[in-house]
Structures are given as structure tokens and as C-alpha cells.
Specification:
Layout (H helix, E strand, L loop, with lengths): L5 E6 L17 H14 L6 E6 L11 E4 L3 E3 L7 H10 L11 H14 L1
Parallel strand pairs: 1-2
Antiparallel strand pairs: 1-3, 3-4
The protein binds FE2/S2 (inorganic) cluster.
């Protein structure tokens, strides 16, 4: 038996305002997490769906980042306005939002961004 049907990890890592490196707290991670929490409560899914704060998911250049288990679906550059659609489609209807799901192009872009910094 699974503990949760869906377990959402939302990066809220905060490197502080002095740090030049991107972090998801700077670009809306906390608000995104709270919106998921509110939607879980609104739909009576507390206990079966959980929205956890996460530390850095190592995709900082493409944040805010979230990952949903057990599907292991990653979303990057998530905007607050995307949360309703992700919730309705991926959490309620078990269908990832294709236009927002990270894919090979996403990971290649991330790799390039990381190489440019080095
Ligand atoms: S700070 Fe969010 S992925 Fe690294």
C-alpha cells in the first residue's frame, strides 16, 4: 500500500538575496507550494496527496522546479498560473501537462546552462 497516491516535491531552496545563483525561493517556489496545499485541501485530498517543501533539486537554472512521485514527472520554470492546470491534469486526472513536462530538450538546455557557467 502506498503512503500517498501523489507526492509533490516543490523546491523552496533559498540562497538569499546576496547570492547571484538562482534559487527557487527567489522565483516563486513558496507561493507555488502553498497553492498546491490549498488545492489539496480544497479537493479533500489531504492524506492521499502531499505537497512537500523540497531543498534544491539541482535544476536551479530552470526553476521553480517540482517533481511528482510515483510518476517521477518533472516540471521546470513552473509559474503560479500553471499550478491549477498541473493539479487538475496530473494530480486529479493522472495526465501530465505535456507542454510543461521536462524532457530531453529541458535536460540538454540545463546541461548547456551549467557548462556556460563553468
Ligand atoms: S534551488 Fe531549486 S532546484 Fe536548486
Amino acid at each position: 500500500m502506498k503512503k500517498y497516491n501523489k507526492h509533490i516535491f516543490i523546491c523552496v531552496n533559498d540562497r538569499g538575496s546576496d547570492n547571484q545563483r538562482q534559487s527557487c525561493a527567489k522565483c516563486g517556489g513558496m507561493d507555488i507550494r502553498m497553492k498546491f496545499v490549498k488545492l489539496i485541501n480544497k479537493h479533500g485530498l489531504k492524506g492521499t496527496v502531499r505537497a512537500n517543501k523540497s531543498g534544491c533539486l539541482d535544476v536551479c537554472e530552470l526553476g521553480p522546479a517540482i517533481v511528482i512521485y510515483p510518476d517521477e514527472i518533472w516540471y521546470t520554470n513552473v509559474q503560479l498560473d500553471d499550478v491549477d492546470e498541473i493539479f487538475q491534469s496530473n494530480i486529479i486526472n493522472h495526465k501530465p501537462v505535456k507542454r510543461l513536462v521536462a524532457n530531453d530538450i529541458t535536460w540538454n538546455k540545463l546541461q548547456l546552462l551549467k557548462e556556460l557557467k563553468n
